[in-house]
Here is the input.
Amino acid sequence: MARPIEYDEEEVLARALEQFWREGYEASSVNKLLDCCDINRGTLYNSFTDKNTFFKIVINHYNDLLDSQVAASLKNPALGTWESITTFFDEAVVNVRARQRNLGCLLVNSLCSSVNYDGEIKRVLRASLNRVRKALVERLREARTKGKLKKGLDEYLAADILMNALYGIRVNSRNGKSARQLESLANHAISSLRK
Here is the structure.
């Protein structure tokens, strides 16, 4: 008879998330993952198959957190377009705990260090980032329709500008910029698109 699984999956995913976020995919060896998650090798392989699969599961867990931020901001019908975008940047970058903010973004960090990743992991990361872009496009389309998007911009270019700002802000957060500095960068990027 097989032994029952003796770990809290949410806790394991939270710990693995922090490990991958802090040190990246390559530097997060199986032994480091075992230590930080307080599980044994058999549990890792029986429950999560291998490091690549474990990373994808952790990314999906991160996506759940990101989806909550997007739902509370960009997809919140009670917020106007620009208020929803500002709220997203506040929730994603500015209002997070300093310890988390200093880690940057798991997706951006991973994409920047993904030289040795297989194609599937790259697709997972890009799809994750595209979820935010898609939500931005929807809100910016609303701004364009209402005449509140700067002339010469469409919602796709404006979304790409905001995504570029988000990537840069996340890198700056990892480089130690304060919440106030990051908020100024976000506000400048957003205001540059408003009519």
Summary: The two ends are 67 Å apart (CA to CA). DSSP finds ten helices and no strands in the chain.
